[in-house]
Design a protein that fits this description.
16 strands, 8-stranded mixed β-sheet, 4 helices, about 220 residues, single chain, Metallo-beta-lactamase, Chain A, globular
């Protein structure tokens, strides 16, 4: 499995067989990061805000998944769970869907713009191999609340997303506030936009891996 960070909360997941899924494509002008034209078989949309639901950069006519679902996309198992974008049961920012993929036997969970602390959701995704987790606060959980999820879900790998970079047009926290909550030996600053996993991770403690942003 290949996991590529396209910036903000957008990832491209590619199975060994070549099935390609793009999560939460964003409006480049709104976010400030240039999202290149990319092709895929499936697009998942956690919620309908422009920084998570913009198909302008998607080539072709992929299947679009944007609600509670359980299905098979070629060799990839996809299911999703309803949640809220804020701590007031959606009164501020609406709903959010958390997507889980099983790719080449590896479970990957994309948290979208999770904004609440949800123990039922923890039970649904506990023990996943890779957790794609917003950490920037303001519109999502902040660093402390993101760590709350890590401590309870206990993934093998966490990839932070939805944090401030020099390119962003709006103010959220940087990734450093989240990274400082972990021991140095558990943080890996990966000098690439692509994480390749050939098998299920076997590390005993959670590793936090930051990825570079994909450049076409």
């Amino acid at each position: 499995m290949k996991l590529q960070y396209m910036g903000h909360s957008c990832f491209r997941i590619i199975s060994e067989m070549g099935t390609t899924i793009v999560c939460d494509p964003f409006n480049s002008q709104m976010v400030g990061i240039d999202l290149p034209k990319i092709g895929c078989d499936v697009v998942t949309i956690s919620h309908h805000h422009d920084d998570h639901d913009c198909l302008d950069s998607i080539k072709g006519n992929p299947a679009q998944l944007d609600g509670e679902i359980s299905c098979l996309a070629d060799d990839v198992v996809v299911d999703s769970f309803a949640s809220f974008h804020d701590k007031q049961k959606g009164k501020l920012r609406g709903t959010n869907h958390v997507f889980r993929f099983v790719v080449d036997g590896i479970s990957v969970v994309h948290m979208g713009d999770i904004g609440e602390l949800n123990l039922q959701l923890v039970d649904q995704i506990a023990g996943c191999d890779v957790l794609l987790l917003p950490v920037g606060g303001t519109y999502t959980v902040d660093a402390t609340d993101a760590k709350w999820y890590v401590d309870r879900v206990c993934p093998k790998i966490v990839v932070p997303m939805h944090y401030k970079t020099p390119m962003h047009n709006f103010e959220i926290d940087t990734v450093e506030s989240f990274l400082h909550l972990f021991d140095d030996q558990d943080v890996v600053r990966h000098a690439s936009e692509t994480l390749v996993l050939n098998d299920v991770p076997t590390n005993q403690t959670t590793k936090v891996i930051t990825l570079e942003i994909y450049q076409d």
